[in-house]
Specification:
With about 140 residues, the chain is mainly α. The chain contains six helices and three strands; from the N terminus they run βααββαααα. A three-stranded antiparallel β-sheet has the order 1-3-2.
């Protein structure tokens, strides 16, 4: 693969002018193009100048890599927390629905007691209102 001097400078971490001087001194071979720019073969370039280390090799790059890693961990922790909160919200909604149903049942029982009505299940079990406990208390045990 062939590189322009700008690309070669990026790949090696050297300045473009350093590479140009190396070509002029014969330390590095390059092909002169029609537009007076140079192309340098990759193997020739890396023979003279080793490839640039990954960004994490520099202190600033290492700090950036650590920050990115920490941010990634933070994002994952926040996603897990969001999932937990969603599950808790769903459980809370279900609990509220159960409590509302229980409150409705209690409300219906209070209304029946206040109006001296016999609950429907008791009517179905005994067969008539006259057999209810209230009726027996008011008018005696038996008929």
């Amino acid at each position: 693969m062939k590189f322009t001097l700008v690309q070669a400078a990026i790949e090696t971490g050297k300045d473009r002018s350093t590479l140009y001087r190396a070509i002029k001194k014969g330390k590095l071979s390059g092909e002169l193009q029609d537009d007076n720019s140079y192309l340098v073969d990759g193997s020739e370039l890396f023979r003279v100048y080793p490839p640039k280390q990954a960004d994490s090799a520099t202190p600033q790059g290492a700090q950036v890599a650590m920050q990115q890693h920490a941010q990634g961990e933070l994002i994952e922790a926040l996603r897990a927390q969001i999932d937990l909160l969603k599950a808790q919200a769903e459980r809370d909604r279900e609990q509220i629905a159960r409590e509302q149903q229980q409150a409705d049942n209690w409300h219906n029982q209070v209304i029946m007691l206040l109006t001296h009505q016999q609950p429907m299940q008791e009517v179905n079990q005994t067969g008539s209102k006259e057999d209810s406990l209230l009726w027996r208390k008011l008018f005696g045990r038996g008929r």
